[in-house]
User: Fold these one by one.
Assistant:
Number 1:
Amino acid sequence: MLGVLYFSDLTELYQVRDEYIRSRPVVAIILIDNYEELTKNLTESAISSMNAKLNETITRWTEGYSGLLRRLERNRFLFIFEKRDLERAKENKFSLLEDIHEIVNSSGLPASISIGLGVDGEKLRGKLRFCRAGHRDGTEPRRRSGGHQETGSTSISTAGGTGKRITAARYVPV
């Protein structure tokens, strides 16, 4: 009786698989929830200054991740980045939420944002659909008491609009 024993090193295959998973794109829509209230009764120069602060804060946060940021509208941004950076953002408890709350208009109203994440879609279009699922018809955030902002496949909530308590939960649109 003759037997054959065959060994194969799969280390490189697993490393390539893991790198593929970590490099998958994540689509995020960042929405400034109370933009109208922030800019209400402000002069044009004050609105310009407010926009500059918001842009600078969002841009500074996204620079910490390898991704692409585009402003879609005056209160909406598209951010595409890698899944490995999503893990880091979760570890940092989406510090952008707290950073944005530091921006206050002349009447003392702090800025508020919601972040819709598309992680689970097979293609970019599916990820964008997940991302928009956290916003009614893609334009308004779903608000609940306590300043809760839902996102496509992750839910981020802020306690009383302070941005101090952040929890994550799974959300899948039906």
Number 2:
Amino acid sequence: MPEVGELDERELAAVVGGTMAQTSNVAVKLNPAQAGQLEEEVRREQAALDRLQDEAAQLTLRARAGQTMSVKLATKNGANHFNVLPPGSNDEALFVGSSGGNEWTGVLPADGEYKVRVYLMRSAARRNEAANYTLKVGIAGTSRPTEFGKAPASDAKVKGTGYHATGPLPCRMGNDKPIQCEFGVIRGEPGNAEVHITPPGGLTRVLTFMGANVTTNPGEKVEAVKQGYDWSVKVNDYEHYTIPEAVISGG
């Protein structure tokens, strides 16, 4: 299956256009800053939409854990959506467009091939509807460090996800009232973990714990203090998170 090659410490943006129920065409456009270095590589590994059936098409991209994928679908047909499927999945999705909307950004939980599946709802397909659409897909960021390691085999992942644990944790933005933010954690060797936090509003914050060192995106300010069994983490003097040690270490 055609795919975009692995991306590391660089960014690739693909713009895909097509018509549901017709043969789809593919155009790949590079961010201007990367045009020189990646142009030849992308020409060799041209992204493509693969025909699945009359009402669906699929884009496959290879990426690494810790990178960020963004997808945006522009369409005038309200029954035209996309899903994002993690490596190894043909059905369970990281994102479902029919309930989540036509735009998504998320941190990828595992290495491998991700599928962006564009489709018409079956009711629309039965009515022989068509949809002209443009799909914009980007992958950016770096993979997690080699010394992150792997979690023990006994630390099973939550079914249908790339996370060892999921749930809510206390958070606060600025001077707002404390709320609960959803999280997913990927654990490495003991003491190492990557916590993906999603406060209301669409922000995705990734905090990487390497022993006593806590980091996030390059250039952003992080202050982290362990108090008892909890980590108190502040990012850019605005985002406040309370992360139980059990999230990092399991148990």
Number 3:
Amino acid sequence: MDSKLARNQKEDASLATNTASANAADALETTALYRQVCEILEAARGRAARSVNSEMVRAYWQIGHAIVEGEQAGKERADYGTRLVESLAAQMKAERVKGFSKNNLWYMRQFYLAFPEKLHSLRGELSWTHYRLLLKVEKPAARGWYGTEAATQNWSTREIERQINSLFWERAALSTRKAEMPATTQRQPAPFRKPNKTQTKAPATRRPATPLMC
């Protein structure tokens, strides 16, 4: 009887151990699966955010285009563009449409003017904040370079602002021009040196001897 009881207890302990091991394995598998699901969701949210951002950037470009066309329709009237934007901003505010203040609408107008007829070439990797920073760059070549680098190098808005403020493109362009200059144009003129007195002193002239009179 005692041996049977001991055998039952041993079997119960073994079963409990196996159950605990199975539960631990299940927990590990669940944790791994949970992490995988989270990664999938995070990637999907990132793609969705980039897609929404890209569509909003395109919408801002189109709004800028519409504003410019509206200005051109009434360009014979003084300050028509200013009053048009102010009126539009006021109506958007009255309709409780956020994000379309007078300043933002002017940015959208400037956005279109800086990238006219280039809706297809707008970089989906860049946010509206990226483009607002690019609008501060006056030279189209520099603006295009900063935009391309920001997209390909995955620059944050802080990084692209730092690069613009440091005049990185301008300094790089200047270095390139110097490297392409012929050696004769890069050579600096020799410094001025004061002539040596021994070199500039005229040689002494000897007077001819006076002939003796007889």
Number 4:
Amino acid sequence: MFERQAVSFHPCVPSLNSFAVFGSPLTLAFAFDFRDQRAINDGGKIEAERVDGCSKLLVNCHHHMTLVKRIDRDVVHQKRMGRLCRGVNARLRSRSAATMPSAPKRRLLLRAILTGLTLFLATPALAQDRAQRLLAELADAPGPPGFEEPVRAVVVRELRPLADAVSYDGLGSVIARQGSAGPKIMLDAHMDELGGVVRRVTPQGYLSMQMLGGWLDQALPDQRWIIIGSKGPVHAVTGIRDVHVVPADERTRVFPRDGLYLDVGARTAAEVEALGLSPGDPVVPDSPFTSLAGGRYLGKAWDDRVGCAVVIEALRRLRASGHPNQLFVAATVQEEVGLRGARTAADLIKPDIGIAIEGGIAGDTPGRNSEETQAAIGAGPGIFLYDSSAIPSRKMVALVRDIARVKGLPLQADLVQGYGDDSAAIQATAGGVPTVNLVVPVRYTHAHNGVMDRAGFDRMVELVVGLVQRLDAKTVAEMRDFTP
């Protein structure tokens, strides 16, 4: 995808010693020093290009040209005109032979450039905030059960600056501790997503797949996938029978998963091997993050990358505001195949209170039975009063409701059959732990393409922050007191 944006300005005159402007989705550090430079006395333009997600900003002042390419997020690179920049992926060059301009003219250029940069950074395709970038990066990262490494790398990178200590359980769950005194609060979200693994390779170059997690058979045919092989990712598609050859009485039947094969374009098993693919390689949906209208986000794996983003952003805010407890953020593994990481992480943490953050089930699409689920995206965070794996602590439910009331946050109650979450594993450890499962409602979970609402995410972060701040020693003792 190629996008271009241009803003003209004049007079193009250097402004002052140095300045810096920071924008998103990729942090652009734009800084230069004119002390040793000559005049620019005619017009120019600011241009921005974006090619396949990589942005560059071009300031063309006819005589001076500054190029800033993609650089690391939150890293400031200072540059000087006419010198090679030592910053990552940034370079600067000068083409001038005039004289140094006056201070008033330099101020005119500053205003012109700042105006142009404001227009550039307001472009919808580029003007994303930190949370949206995090949600996109987490959703796009591949991580089926047992293969969570790419997701874990993102999570650890975000949690490490916010935590007092980061550790891991024996399955690979991440445990970030913030605080060293008070009751132990476990804030949980799982890193894994639905996916599969390559089962075998046929002589004709097709690959069969073992599904991981709770897939519907009707969600599997004619879908794009990515196989993570030894030589890197390989794109694939699951086939589907052509309607022209399917008998009329079979056209409405579900295509069984055992008849599905991954097509990578290979003609033989040897060609598959040459691609670096073999049995046991992980497979994930090929569904890139996309921003929809109305503050909605389309992507894979919102169950439970939305929860991972919530706990990261909550920890960020709590580091600034403080809290009266030891907070353990657990980004767990293998939830989709049996809540395994939550159990092993809780064994190490031994929490006094457990809070699971999940992607919930939205029932706000046409043709749904209202008894299946009562939640809607955009109507606030949800709280599970029941699912088939856990019954929450009634005292915790009452506390969450009170915090939502005090903060003026809408809170949706839901009861879902056929759903399991990490709170079920947490509550059965350490002699019993009061738990609650909070959800950001999502449409079309356990499929290639889910839709979440940004406002629901933001409100969930606010609710979680308020909940953790209320869980002091006295409140936790009350949650755990069952005296008649």
